Amino acid sequence: MTLRWPMPRRDLPSAQEAARILAAKRTRPQRRPPPPMGRALNKTLREFDARFGQGSGALEARWREVVGPEIAKRTEPVKLTKGRNGGPSSLDIRVAGPAAAIIQHQAHEILARVNLFLGAEAVQKLRIVQGPLQHKHERPAKAARRLPPLDAAAEAGLAQDLAAAPDGKLKAALLALGRGVLRQSRARAEGN
Known about the structure:
Layout: H1 15-24, H2 37-52, H3 55-61, H4 63-67, H5 69-74, E1 75-81, E2 90-95, H6 100-105, H7 107-118, E3 125-130, H8 152-161, H9 169-191
Parallel strand pairs: 2-3
Antiparallel strand pairs: 1-2
Helix pairs in contact: 8-9
């Protein structure tokens, strides 16, 4: 058996002709990446939002504005359940401990405010679940009042007490701590 080597073809284009052909015509179409997922889902999300309303996510984000600061301190929305076959929708709210009785008396007011936010008759029932709240309320910071500086006698006494300590960061920190403690104790004594 004899192996035949392919014979060189004489009808192949030259290098210049091949470059010209490839520049004019691509052999395969360029692959395009798929469109971004967000763009593909925008239309569907808009349809769902129009059909089913804002939902509990929007309610959670604006709960304090919807029900007011006093009720929001003691409650948080847990779940918004749509009724089946046109049945009544319900909103589950978590209430911190003994405040449940107070919130139960304010249920009609809470429902009215929630329906004002979500749309007329969006929620017909309010279900109260007792338990610890998951969110952390931001308390407004108290205005820090500046304490007056120590008088010369108190400063000298503090320096004398720390005279045996070696110089450095530790001594500076102990001086600052001592000044703060002496200022606060003097402010308490004057406040009484």
